């Protein structure tokens, strides 16, 4: 056998052994890990017997028979392994369990001590080593092939019931086993059966490493980077061994120096690459810890937010009932239902009424927010005339604007625009926008223009009021955000109206935009909504 093949064999044996130990030590109590390690140990022993058969001339028959025994044990343990990989779902019938174990023991004894499976290992100069099969070789071949096929079927049957991670593990297993076991069966059993030469059996061991690496990866649940590092380490290891063999085989002093230099450089490069790989793995692990932390915090925050929304909703409901009762009684007194009341008390009661109204509005805003945040805001969508809403809003505000001596206009145009909306809620949004303009404008004008633009309608509210600074502009439409100047003018403001308005507009497939040239330069709010139809 050429030196590079024997070297490769030794490397594969060492790698398999290392992986068997690694998997076993990772969890000594798990049957999955135990059966995998037993399978891999037998695989190493099997490869070792092939190595011995081609490098040594004594005890050929014993080594040849051991080679068959290890192949039988490989199939036996892979069968057990398949029940536990990636997790155990099926229970093995005890009769099958004991019969199979008994059959395996018998087969091992027959293989070792009779010539029924392996009759002879003959060496001749033309063909090299030839294994002469015994009369019952077919029993071995069937035992091996059937067990391997059944094991694959067991793992494949589990696939559907697995979660995403386990499915991925099964995929690694299947790819690895297809490459190794089926190539192995082909080269070591089928080819040797038909050619009666054991030359092709040299290939089998080489495929085994693919299976061992891919399955260990699945068991150890390492991430992609780790398998990358295993492969890179394995390749570097091979490169160094090959350089070392070259050095041992060098004859002249010139080649010795050259090979020593080669080995030295590969060693340094290998150390450098492995060190960097480990650094990468380490930093990725730290990132993973951070990501998990962040996820946990996020879940906590969501829970807190939900609790807050629920608290707000309960409190607001509780507050609304007494406030409505207060409103009812105060308005009855104001209307004279309880008899005459002095002017002094009347004036005080009007103040109580107004304050109570503000509180009701605030509670309504808070309720709206909790409904929006918990996704329970209910809309009664219907065909709605925008002009009707605008006309009634004009009536609502004209007295106030006249009193403030502000020029107030609403231009709806000659068309009657129909929108598909919850009329009360949309009216509330436009009303809040006009109300703000009137509140924050001392002189000049407040104008409302309705403009049609490519299937949508813009309701533009422009005023010549206090304006909005760039800093405040970027924060508007968020809860409780108010401009400094606005807070001074209208102390009771909450900074909730625009937030609620925006959410309602969005629920109507619309939007609200704001622009202002800065403080003292007026503001412009544009509510855009889709048009249902236009009645001329
Ligand atoms: P509130 O008016 O109760 O404070 P809003 O959510 O309706 O709550 O408005 C939020 C903030 O937006 C106001 O406090 C004010 O700073 C600013 N704002 C809204 N409309 C105008 C406007 N027309 N002119 C100037 N500032 C405005």
Account of the 3D structure:
This protein is α+β, with helices and mostly antiparallel strands. Helices cover 68% and strands 12% of the residues. The protein is built from 15 helices and ten strands. The strands form three sheets. A five-stranded mixed β-sheet has the order 4-6-7-9-8, covered by helices on one side. Strands 3-5-10 form a three-stranded antiparallel β-sheet. Strand 8 and strand 9 form a beta hairpin. Helix 2 runs antiparallel to helix 7. The chain is elongated and about 125 Å long. The model has no long low-confidence stretch (mean pLDDT 84). The structure holds adenosine-5'-diphosphate. The site of adenosine-5'-diphosphate has 20 residues, from helix 12 and helix 15.
Structure at a glance:
The protein has 15 helices and ten strands. The protein has 536 residues and is α+β, with helices and mostly antiparallel strands.
Helical residues, percent: 55-70%
Could you give a short account of the major beta sheet? 5 strands, mixed
- Which radius of gyration do the C-alpha atoms yield? 42 Å
Q: Give the end-to-end Cα distance, rounded to a whole number of Å.
A: 97 Å
The strand count comes to 10
- Strand order within the widest sheet? 4-6-7-9-8
Shape: elongated
- SS-derived structural category: alpha+beta
Bound ligands, named by name, code or SMILES: adenosine-5'-diphosphate
What's the SSE pattern? HHHHEEHHHHHHEHEEHEEHHHEEE
Average pLDDT number: 84
């Amino acid at each position: 056998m050429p030196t590079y093949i024997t070297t490769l064999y030794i490397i594969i044996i060492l790698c398999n052994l290392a992986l068997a130990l690694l998997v076993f030590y990772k969890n000594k109590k798990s049957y999955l890990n135990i059966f995998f390690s037993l399978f891999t140990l037998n695989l190493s022993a099997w490869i070792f017997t092939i190595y011995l058969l081609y490098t040594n001339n004594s005890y050929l028959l014993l080594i040849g028979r051991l080679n068959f025994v290890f192949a039988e044990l490989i199939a036996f343990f892979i069968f057990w392994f398949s029940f536990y990989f990636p997790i155990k779902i099926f229970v093995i019938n005890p009769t099958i369990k004991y019969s199979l174990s008994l059959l395996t023991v018998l087969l091992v004894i027959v293989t070792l001590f009779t010539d029924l499976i392996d009759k002879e290992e003959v060496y001749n100069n033309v063909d090299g080593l030839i294994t002469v099969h015994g009369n019952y070789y077919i029993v071995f071949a069937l035992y091996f092939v059937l067990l391997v096929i059944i094991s694959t079927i067991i793992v494949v049957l589990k696939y559907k019931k697995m979660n995403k991670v386990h499915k991925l593990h099964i995929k690694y297993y299947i790819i690895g086993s297809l490459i190794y076991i089926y190539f192995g069966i082909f080269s070591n059993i089928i080819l040797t059966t038909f050619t009666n030469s054991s030359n092709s059996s040299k290939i089998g061991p080489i495929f085994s490493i693919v299976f061992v690496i891919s399955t260990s990866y699945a068991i150890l649940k390492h991430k992609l980077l780790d398998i990358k590092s295993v492969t890179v380490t394995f390749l570097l290891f091979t490169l160094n061994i090959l350089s070392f063999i070259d050095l041992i085989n060098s004859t002249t002093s010139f080649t010795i120096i050259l090979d020593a230099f080669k080995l030295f450089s590969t060693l340094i490069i290998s150390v450098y690459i492995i060190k960097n790989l480990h650094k990468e793995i380490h930093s990725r692990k730290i990132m993973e810890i951070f990501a998990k932390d962040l996820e946990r915090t996020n879940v906590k925050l969501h829970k807190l937010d939900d609790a807050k929304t629920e608290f707000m909703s309960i409190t607001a409901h509780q507050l609304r009932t007494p406030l409505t009762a207060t409103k009812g009684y105060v308005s009855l007194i104001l209307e004279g239902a309880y008899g005459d009341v002095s002017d002094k008390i009347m004036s005080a009661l009007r103040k109580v009424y107004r304050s109570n109204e503000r509180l009701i509005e605030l509670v309504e805003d808070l309720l709206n927010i909790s409904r929006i945040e918990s996704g329970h805001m209910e809309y009664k969508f219907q065909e709605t005339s925008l002009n009707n809403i605008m006309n009634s809003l004009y009536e609502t505000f004209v007295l106030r604007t006249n009193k403030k001596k502000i020029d107030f206009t609403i231009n709806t145009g000659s068309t009657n625009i129909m929108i598909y909306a919850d009329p009360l809620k949309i009216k509330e949004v436009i009303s809040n926008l006009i109300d703000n303009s009137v509140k924050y404008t001392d002189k000049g004008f407040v104008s409302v223009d309705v403009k049609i633009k490519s299937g949508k309608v813009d309701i533009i509210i422009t005023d010549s009021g206090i304006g909005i600074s760039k800093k405040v502009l970027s924060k508007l439409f968020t809860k409780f955000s108010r401009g400094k100047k606005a807070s001074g003018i209208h102390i009771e403001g909450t900074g909730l109206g625009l937030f609620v308005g925006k959410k309602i507009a969005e629920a109507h497939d619309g939007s609200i935009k704001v622009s202002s040239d800065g403080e003292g330069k007026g503001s412009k709010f544009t509510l855009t909504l889709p048009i249902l139809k236009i009645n001329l």
